[in-house]
Amino acid sequence: MFLQIKKLSKGYRKGDTRIIALDQINLNVEQGEFIALTGPSGSGKTTLLNIIGGLDNQDAGRILIEGQVQTKGCDAESAFWRAQNIGFVFQFSNLLPYLSAAQNVELPLLLTSLSSKKRRERVSAALELVGLADRASHYPNELSGGQEQRVAIARAFVSSPKLMLCDEPTGDLDRESAKSILNLLNTLKTEFKKTIIMVTHDMIAAEATDRRIELYKGKLTQAIVSSEISPFSDKER
Ligand code: ADP
Ligand code: MG
User: Fold this and answer.
1) Dihedral sign, CA of 58, 64, 69, 71?
2) Does the C-beta of 44 come closer than 6 Å to ligand 1?
3) Would you say the C-alpha torsion 110, 84, 90, 21 has a positive or negative sign?
4) Is 176 exposed, middle or buried (0-12, 13-18, 19+ CB in 10 A)?
5) What φ, ψ does residue 14 adopt, rounded to 5°?
6) Which of 153, 192, 196, 206 has the smallest number of Cβ neighbours within 10 A?
7) Sign of the torsion formed by the C-alpha atoms of 111, 119, 90 and 87
8) Distance, CA of 183 to chain centre
9) What is the pLDDT of residue 77?
10) How far is the C-alpha of 37 from the C-alpha of 222, rounded, in Å?
11) What's the confidence (pLDDT) of residue 72?
12) In order of start, what are the domains of the chain with their CATH numbers?
């Protein structure tokens, strides 16, 4: 099993109240699966993605990727591992405005020991893949929303991560651009065997995936899991 999530819980304290963002989540994801994570606003989707990607810490529970327990905290070793193995795509592309498309895509590679020649090759290949080879020297404000998001996917993909975490990647796009992003993610799955978890509100986007799971008030309510682990918490059974 590529990704195993076991009894993952997370709460936030706001003044005197405690918000339970994730309530004993169990989930197994196979290598190469493309999963849609749906659920109403505030149901914990971003929290779950951020914890899987190490941008946030859980209160309880474990995450294993390829059998390795993901350590909490931000020690250099796990940060380096994540930089190499996990790619993030957000709703807004978050490209740096004063860097060209190619320079934006190159950013994650600056953390690696690749030579500048190798970096340039990787950047070209990634831009080619997202269909923007001819826009390499364009700045973000010279690109459409859909093109910016494709550059963001190239940036997430350029370090060859095994896992891509996408938080509403089509949320800010028109139907046509959304379709091209979905096609692109499907290509990453089928041709590059990437494992992809995509948060989405868009049912058409959700249907383009292998499996849909739904969060509701911090619980997974509708996960058809191919594994022995039940998606439901012990309390509900
Ligand atoms: P979603 O992405 O599904 O909209 P989130 O994961 O962003 O939901 O949020 C889940 C719950 O946790 C919400 O009730 C939200 O208000 C709360 N929450 C998220 N981040 C924080 C934070 N940093 N501090 C306090 N509460 C938070
Ligand atoms: Mg969110």
Assistant:
1) negative
2) yes
3) negative
4) exposed
5) -130, 105
6) 192
7) negative
8) 16
9) 76
10) 10
11) 63
12) 28-57+70-225 (3.40.50.300)
Q: Residue 209 phi/psi, 5° resolution? A: -105, 180
- Tens-binned pLDDT, residue by residue, of the chain (237 aa): 999 999 999 999 988 999 999 999 999 999 999 999 999 999 999 999 999 998 889 999 999 999 888 876 567 777 778 878 999 999 888 999 999 999 999 999 998 889 999 999 999 999 999 999 999 999 999 999 999 999 999 999 999 999 999 999 998 889 999 999 999 999 999 999 999 999 998 888 888 899 999 999 999 986 544 333 344 434 443
Q: Is the pTM of this model over 0.70?
A: yes
Ligand nearest to the CA of 50: 1
Q: Give the pLDDT score at 30.
A: 95
Identify the nearest ligand to the CA of 47 by its number.
1
Q: Is 53 left (phi over 0), alpha (psi -120 to 50) or beta?
A: alpha
With a 6 Å cutoff on the Cβ, whether 218 touches ligand 1 is: no
In one-letter notation, the amino acid at residue 58 is Q
β partners of residue 5 = 27, 63
CA of 42 to the centre of ligand 1 (A): 5
